[in-house]
Amino acid sequence: MKEEYDKRLAEKDQLNMVVIGHVDAGKSTLMGHLLYQLGEINQRIMHKYEQESKKLGKGSFAFAWVLDETEEERARGVTMDIAQSRFETPKKVITLLDAPGHKDFIPNMITGTAQADVAILVVNATKGEFETGFELGGQTREHAILARSLGVTQLIVAVNKMDTIDWLETRYNDITKKLGQFLKQVGYKENDISFIPCSGLSGVNLTGRIPEPKLESWYKGSTLEEQIDKFKVVTRSIDKPFRLCVGDIFKGMGSGFSVTGRIVTGSVQPGDRLLVLPSGDSVAVKGLAINDVSYPCAFAGDHVTVTITGMDMNNIHVGSMLCDPTSPLKSATRIKAKIVLFNVEIPITKGFMVVFHYQSITEPAVIKRLNSQLNKSTGEVIKNKPKCLVKNMSAVVELEFDRPICLELYKDYKDLGRFMLRYSGHTIAAGLVEEVLKSKSKTDEGVSSSG
Amino acid sequence: MFVFRSVELVPEEPEDMWHAYNLVAVGDTLRSTTIRKVQTESATGSVSVNKVRTTLCIQVETIDFDTQGCVLRVKGRNIQENQYVKMGAYHTLDLELNRKFALGKHEWDSVALDRIDMACDPTQHADLAAVIMQEGLAHVCLITPNMTLLRAKIETTIPRKRKGMCAQHDKGLTKFYDQIIQAVLRHVNFDIVKCVLIASPGFVKDQFAEYMFTMAVKMDWKILTDNKSKFVLVHSSSGFKHSLKEVLQDPSLAPKLADTKALTEVKALDEFYQMLMNDADRASYGVKHVEKAVDLQAVEVLLISDELFRSQDVQKRKRYIKIVDGVKENGGEVRIFSSLHVSGEQLGQLSGVAAILRFPIHDDDDDSEEEG
Question: Which stretches make up the eRF1/Pelota-like N-terminal domain (chain B) (predicted)?
Fold first, then answer.
């Protein structure tokens, strides 16, 4: 196993990259065009997309079609679910996750970002558009905060659609200044952020094939591809017990069925026996594939398709966990967690019903108790049992779910201990799992639910 | 000896059962006709079992309410002997629609009397049905003035889209939609329901509605095509049941829903949260805090869950009644939430009682309130 991993290390570095940003910033188009320029998409297919999109009167969406594959997405011109693709740069192999920008699909975006190591934040440079995305309630802001809270530390900001403002240097500087300040506030380190001016539609400054005199007159920096190549390598915990969060389940070829997801920790080989939680079934691994190519083993950080046998497909759900049978995950219906509130409009009290986003799970949860309010920077307890929590506070709370959820403590597994809370379409808090608690019996809550 | 003063009531619709459930308390007497198995032994010693319809009066010991079937089941000891049933024998009364029952209490408090007034109020409110969905998850609910009943929860896994393999995704989606349509056909009675809400984030609702009506034409489901105008599409942030709260607040629905209890409750709770945001000292929750505010005559609006009045403990019930009466005496407004609505559920989580105050009262740090 170790040998295999060393062999892998000798090859190019693996990175999972998510593309985020406000709706219509041009995320899919930018990435579609990048894939095309890198030769991942052949000309014949691209030509077909161009013809078909023109027929629908949406010629400018041709590149987005590379990633937006369902009819619904193409017809509406909006990405709705995470699209996955893969490309190589001189030094890296990148798994690309294209996130939807529309605010209704933030749950999908969270799922994608939870699997990513690094991110590209796409902003629209067009007059007025950047401002809409950046204002309070815009997704540029929300996505950036979400990504940071979900553990993404390195960020490229692609200032897109520069062609619509005639490659104006002043506008570019203006945007980078505003965004840079904001991103630092959110918690990104200054030298982990970089800015790239580009145009997804015309393809300028993606890989450097298309010259643009207006840009070259003032910009001497790297292209998007070069910048992606400069991402720092992320260390993976392959020595920890195996954990994979199921993102998708489908019937593949042959026996059994396949699940996909990112291996969070550990490694896996065909023939291994794994435990599926929360259902508790024991399964055998039949095959492993990364990007449709089968591999003899897979490690933490890989996006892998695992073919398994030994259980009914109906008992496994998106959000289920595959893990090492000798050290299973914790299963909890009530947890204690540390949360940091965002800019929320209404105060949070106990009894608040929220949606709990964790890896690829979305589950309803209730805040059962406000334990204490903490000082944001020192972590000291300011007040025990506060009456309510308002914006930007930090606190320890207890959450309860309707059914058991598999999770890990933040102190044991960083990636598996993070979650987000949302309420009526807004992200209200980011949290870390501190402790798994015994659930109190449902009976003392009275007859409040109708089963 | 207590004096039981009784009231005769006839439940006419399922909703009335809910009211009855909120009225009957442990220790009350209940008289109704019922069916009882009676064993008779003939002179020769052979035993025969007959079912007889008889009128029984019992002293209530346990009360069960089935939200799915809207049936109220009350168990207790017989307190009026007749030819079939001995004194003190246990019997369970199933209250039935359109059958008279008499309820006796030795003390009728204001909340119980209000409840009877409310139950007898003949003004019809709009009955609603709602389908709250997101990809892979849907809830079909019926909303009556005092109840939100979850009729079906549909949860399926839909394979994600992947390169060149959209077929499984589309197949999963149609299967999911078919299940919802079946649930709608089974549970929504279009004679009563005035409006069916279809709520979801994104485009799922549009896609579903389109699919449903094309299928309705194809399969000749008259009931759907005839009632097409009753379907309303609304935005919600998720497919979970508590999103119903935002759905009801949608301004485009206001004229259709005007003054349904569900909506006024949602609004009242919202006002409470607004107050908590703007001036935390003018909003309080938890029994102790609210009691203190009542003593200071500070309560302007009292939000209280009807769950609290169903308490088995007479002392507890009295404590809550005292709060309600205290608020009314001082000209405050009392809103009794139904614990079956989503807003009531949330209030229930928030200790069941909350108040918007006339003037700020600063809470001391003796926040030793225990969870209810």
Answer: 1-121
Assess contact for B59 and B77: CB atoms under 8 A: yes
> Residues 292-321, chain A: which have Cβ within 8 Å of B?
316-318
CATH number of the domain at A1-230, out of 3.40.30.10, 3.40.250.10, 3.40.50.720, 3.40.50.300? 3.40.50.300
Chain B residues 122-151 within an 8 A CB cutoff of chain A: 134, 136, 148-150
Residue A145 clears pLDDT 80, i.e. is over it: yes
CA distance A33 to A154: 22
Helix B314-329 × helix B287-295 angle, to 10°: 40
B24 token code pair: 């009957």
The confidence score (pLDDT) of residue B372 equals 38
- Within A30-186, strands assigned E span 83-88, 92-98, 118-124, 154-160
* CATH of the domain spanning B5-120: 2.30.30.870
- Report the alpha-carbon distance of residue B189 to residue B226 in Å, rounded: 13
Under CATH, which number does the domain B262-357 receive? Answer: 3.30.1330.30
- The correct CATH number of A243-323 out of 3.20.20.140, 3.40.50.620, 3.80.10.10, 2.40.30.10 is 2.40.30.10
Q: Which residues 68-107 of B have a C-beta within 8 angstroms of A?
A: 68
pTM summary value: 0.82
Contact by Cβ (8 Å): A294, A248: no
Cα-based distances in Å from B139 to A447, B129, B145 = 19, 10, 19
Contact call for residues A433 and A408 (beta carbons, < 8 A): yes
Strands A281-290, A303-309: pairing is antiparallel
- The alpha carbon of A77 is separated from its chain's Cα centroid by a whole number of angstroms, namely 21
Instruction: Tell me the pLDDT band of B42, cut-offs 50, 70 and 90.
Output: confident
- At the top level of CATH, the class of A330-437 is mainly beta
According to the 3-state scheme, what is the secondary structure of B156-177?
CCCCCCCCCCHHHHHHHHHHHH
Q: What is the pLDDT of residue A449?
A: 37
Q: For the domain made up of B128-257, give the CATH fold.
A: Nucleotidyltransferase; domain 5 (3.30.420)
A402 touches chain B (CB under 8 A): no
User: How far is residue B290's CA from residue B322's CA, in Å, rounded to a whole number?
Assistant: 11
pLDDT by residue (tens digit) across A377-397? 788 888 888 888 888 889 999
Contacts by A221-224, CB closer than 8 A, 24 or more apart? A221/A196, A222/A196, A223/A196, A223/A198, A224/A30, A224/A34, A224/A120, A224/A156, A224/A158, A224/A196, A224/A198
Burial grade of A162 (CB within 10 A; 0-12, 13-18, 19 or more):
buried
CA distances from A325 to A248, A274, A276, A280 (A): 21, 6, 9, 10
- Name the residue among A83, A249, A387 with its Cβ closest to that of B280: A387
Q: At what angle do helices B110-120 and B14-23 cross, to 10 degrees?
A: 170
Q: CATH 3.40.50.300 region(s) of chain A?
A: 1-230
Instruction: Look up residue A216 and give its two tokens.
Output: 């070259």
- As a whole number of angstroms, the distance between CA A36 and CA A202 comes to 12
**Nearest Cα residue in chain A from B340:** A448
> pLDDT tens digits for B282-322?
888 888 888 888 888 889 999 999 888 887 777 888 888 88
Question: pLDDT tens digits for B191-215?
Answer: 878 888 899 988 889 989 999 999 9
Tokens 């009644």 belong to residue: B321
A chain contacts of residue B67, beta-carbon cutoff 8 Å: 450-451
For chain A, give every residue range classified as CATH 2.40.30.10: 243-323, 330-437
Cβ distance of B273 and A347 shorter than 8 Å: yes
Residues 6+ apart with CB under 8 A from B262: B128, B143, B145, B148, B248, B341, B343
Tokens 């209000």 -> residue: B114
